[in-house]
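ok new one. same drill as before - structure tokens go in, u give me an amino acid for every spot. 112 of them this time. try not to just spam alanines like last time pls lmao
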């Protein structure tokens, strides 16, 4: 759970909430499988991916602004650490997207 705080709670907490909603919709879909449920899972999964990428872009813009303001050499370790932290939100968004797609495939497969 440390990656949630490390990746920035502004983007990671909504992603966790989206994951919970997608899992709940999947469980609901196992009981009552409808097209609306599958479309909602797909839409939320795609939103999670794009939201994670948005977090990276906003973080990268802030980091580039800070680097430009320093007007000096920046250590490669600091830059690499910043990229690692910045990539946590899009990576988590991709995992949520893939889970949402997997859930949709399962629901499509078991649909009567």
């Amino acid at each position: 759970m440390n990656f949630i705080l490390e990746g920035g709670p502004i983007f990671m907490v909504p992603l966790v909430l989206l994951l919970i909603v997608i899992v709940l919709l999947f469980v609901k879909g196992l009981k009552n499988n409808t097209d609306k449920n599958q479309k909602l899972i797909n839409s939320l999964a795609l939103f999670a991916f794009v939201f994670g990428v948005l977090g990276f872009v906003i973080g990268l813009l802030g980091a580039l602004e800070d680097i430009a303001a320093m007007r000096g050499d920046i250590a490669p370790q600091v830059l690499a650490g910043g990229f690692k932290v910045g990539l946590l939100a899009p990576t988590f968004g991709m995992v949520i997207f893939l889970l949402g797609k997997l859930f949709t495939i399962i629901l499509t497969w078991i649909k009567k």
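The two ends are 38 Å apart (CA to CA). and btw Residues 11-110 form one domain.
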